[in-house]
């Protein structure tokens, strides 16, 4: 079987991009057996440059960089693309318009898993951009009919700080895990039937046993969606 070539826009951060690479290759090996691994190309950003654009609100400049990366992967022969971060799906529509190959949006396979499980009200954890702006919540609500809860102001600041000050730098602290447990518990107290780990680094910190309700790891789900497309080739 001739595999499709996966294009990965990564480096945001490389910690989670490494997990994408590992998960995709493990799944291809498990599905195809033997010595099989995934055919993929990765464009890896210097995250310091992207983070500076994010926090300066220079989203138009960030969009230009994302489009350049996507077009480079398309020219390299990628059959479809993944953006290996939730936050940078803020410009997913603009990226899709600029290329001629499919982009698998990270929110879609996650939402499909949740709906298949018969759940409707979900808590969302992620960067402040993902939790507060409409590009992600709006897709879950308007395209998938989910009800989305986000943490309160203080909890959003805590979740965001831990992502940027610790997780993207490879730091996993037990004190931060407890903080996330507390945030999740408060979302469950508001009626969340599940929690979306809507930042690709959170899976480095939060485990299923840290939540009283199911957690949906967008990194693993997104990677599996890519492999499903490869296997269907």
TrEMBL record:
<dbReference type="InterPro" id="IPR001920">
    <property type="entry name" value="Asp/Glu_race"/>
</dbReference>
<keyword id="KW-0413">Isomerase</keyword>
<dbReference type="GO" id="GO:0047661">
    <property type="term" value="F:amino-acid racemase activity"/>
</dbReference>
<comment type="similarity">
    <text>Belongs to the aspartate/glutamate racemases family.</text>
</comment>
<dbReference type="Pfam" id="PF01177">
    <property type="entry name" value="Asp_Glu_race"/>
</dbReference>
<dbReference type="InterPro" id="IPR004380">
    <property type="entry name" value="Asp_race"/>
</dbReference>
<dbReference type="InterPro" id="IPR015942">
    <property type="entry name" value="Asp/Glu/hydantoin_racemase"/>
</dbReference>
<protein>
    <submittedName>
        <fullName>Aspartate racemase</fullName>
    </submittedName>
</protein>
């Amino acid at each position: 079987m001739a595999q499709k070539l996966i294009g990965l826009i990564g480096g945001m951060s490389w910690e989670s991009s490494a997990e994408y690479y590992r998960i995709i290759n493990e799944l291809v090996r498990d599905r195809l057996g033997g010595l099989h691994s995934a055919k993929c190309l990765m464009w890896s950003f210097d995250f310091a440059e992207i983070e500076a654009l994010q926090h300066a609100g220079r989203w138009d400049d960030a969009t230009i960089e994302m489009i350049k990366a996507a077009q480079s992967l398309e020219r390299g022969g990628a059959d479809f693309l993944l953006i290996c971060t939730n936050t940078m799906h803020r410009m997913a529509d603009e990226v899709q318009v600029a290329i001629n190959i499919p982009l698998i949006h990270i929110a879609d396979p996650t939402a499909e898993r949740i709906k298949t499980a018969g759940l409707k009200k979900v808590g969302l954890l992620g960067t402040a951009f993902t939790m507060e702006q409409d590009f992600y919540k709006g897709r879950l609500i308007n395209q998938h009919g989910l009800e989305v809860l986000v943490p309160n102001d203080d909890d959003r600041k805590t979740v965001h700080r831990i992502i940027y000050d610790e997780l993207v730098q490879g730091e996993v602290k037990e004190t931060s895990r407890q903080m996330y447990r507390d945030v999740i518990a408060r979302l469950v107290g508001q009626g969340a039937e599940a929690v979306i780990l809507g930042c690709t680094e959170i899976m480095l910190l939060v485990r299923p046993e840290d939540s009283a309700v199911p957690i949906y790891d967008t990194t693993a789900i997104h990677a599996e969606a890519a492999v499903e497309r490869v296997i269907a080739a």
